[in-house]
Specification:
Elements: H1 8-19, E1 30-31, E2 37-39, E3 44-47, H2 60-73, H3 88-101, E4 105-109, H4 112-123, E5 129-133, H5 138-147, E6 150-154, H6 159-170, E7 177-182, H7 194-203, E8 207-211, E9 235-239, E10 249-253, H8 255-264, H9 266-269, H10 276-288, H11 293-312, E11 324-330, H12 332-344, E12 347-348, E13 350-352, E14 362-367, H13 374-389
Parallel strand pairs: 3-12, 5-6, 5-7, 7-8, 8-9
Antiparallel strand pairs: 1-2, 2-3, 4-10, 9-10, 11-14, 13-14
The structure holds pyridoxal-5'-phosphate.
């Protein structure tokens, strides 16, 4: 037997992707003149794909504080947190986050992906059971797979199914059970019944991990998410790359949980800590977010108006009631055609297709922000309507 050519597995995988018309590549952009605009290959596009839900990424306060912290502390943090990479600005930001989210403690992570993919295995081992919603983000899936725990997924937002799985698990000999859900789901834009899930977690004495990535900044009292002050949640995860307009992530938890993660979580321990400019931007964002009711109201109005009018045009949008709106087209090629048609008419909105979503549920996924104006939304609706008739 001879070894195959070293790289032939790559050729085969890429060829397969191309044949299926699912080969992906990167497109580069530059921010446009207006904040909702993005400069594509040869023109400005209205951006309906950004997670910058409040428009904070260009906010002067964030930029100023990023500059200030850079000037004082430098461009990098020079070490991991347990070595010399914890500056007073890291500590102060964690205190601010804990106070805002109403927990004893908070801990910074370098990204949501890094936190999710590494915390889950820190909380479980091969004697544990993980139960995650079927539509959970890939970072949570990676965490579950890395953990070596038994891993089952419950049907999306199906509390009865979760209850059944918990019930049968309680008759087995797992050392612990970890339930994982998102509060706002990243592909369908619908919400979990987090309070009901938290009640189940308490009933069955299970740990609960709530990924609040798309809710912090946007939903809940003072924009502090949908998981805050729900009792029964052990890990509340928020990201800074979305509504916070920066980069990184955090966990809000008990002081004991924080100590445990500092001591045992590899994705916290073995990595350089977040750099001063990022800490500066996030520090400014957490001061602003609770006060941004005007922006949130604008965003919520945008969401209602957009969804109602997309539905009027005859498109299904799933049970989404958030800033993430899936416009279901179904057929894969048709969805790609629509994305191209939108781009030709000055709109950036990506096609999401299998395997990211189930077969025949290909969609244009749009995300709205507080900086979209009525004219941008009207333009989108007009173009979508014209395509419908074409
Ligand atoms: C975006 C996202 C993440 C990853 O966060 P990053 O900080 O971008 O790595 C995790 N979970 C969910 C649900 C997300 O949508």
């Amino acid at each position: 037997m001879s070894f195959e050519q070293k790289l032939s597995f790559i050729d085969r995988a890429l060829e397969k992707r191309k044949k299926e018309n699912r080969f992906r590549s990167l497109t580069s952009y530059r921010p446009g003149e207006e904040q909702v605009e993005i400069w594509g290959k040869d023109r400005d596009l209205i951006n309906f794909c950004s997670n910058d839900y409040l428009g904070l990424s260009k906010q002067p306060e964030l930029i100023e504080k990023a500059k200030e912290f850079t000037e004082t502390y430098g461009s990098g943090s020079t070490a991991s947190r347990l070595i010399a990479g914890t500056y007073d600005i890291h500590r102060k930001l964690e205190e601010k986050l804990a106070a805002a989210f109403g927990t004893e403690a908070a801990l910074l992570f370098n990204s949501g992906f890094q936190a999710n993919s590494t915390i889950i295995g820190t909380l479980t081992d091969r004697h544990s059971l993980i139960l995650a919603d079927k539509l959970c983000h890939n970072s949570l899936l990676q965490g579950a797979l890395l953990s070596r725990a038994t891993f089952h997924r419950f049907d999306h937002n199906n509390i009865d199914h979760l209850n059944e799985l918990l019930h049968s698990a309680s008759e087995q000999s797992y050392n612990r059970i970890l339930i994982i859900t998102e509060t706002v789901f990243s592909m369908d834009g619908d919400r979990a019944d987090i309070e009901e899930i938290a009640r189940l977690a308490i009933d069955y004495n299970a740990l609960l991990f709530a990924d609040d990535a798309h809710a912090v900044g946007v939903w809940g009292e003072r924009g502090l998410g949908l998981a805050r002050s729900v009792s029964g949640i052990d890990i509340l995860l928020g990201t800074f790359g979305k509504a916070f307009g920066a980069f990184g992530s955090f966990v809000a938890c008990s002081a004991k949980m924080r100590d445990y993660l500092i001591n045992f979580c590899p994705g916290f321990i073995y990595t350089t800590s977040l750099p001063p400019p990022v800490i500066g931007a996030v520090d400014a964002a957490i001061d602003l977010i609770p006060e941004m009711e005007k922006e949130r109201n604008m965003l919520h109005r945008n969401i209602k108006y957009m969804r109602r009018n997309i539905n009027k045009l005859g498109y299904e949008t799933k049970p989404s009631d958030t800033q993430i709106i899936p416009v279901i087209i179904g057929d894969e090629q048709k969805t790609l055609d629509l994305a191209e048609y939108l781009a030709d008419h000055g709109i950036l909105a990506t096609a999401i297709r299998p395997p990211t979503v189930p077969d025949q549920s290909s969609r244009i996924r749009i995300t709205l922000s507080a900086v979209h104006r009525r004219k941008h939304i009207e333009h989108f609706l007009k173009v979508l309507g014209d395509w419908n008739r074409g």
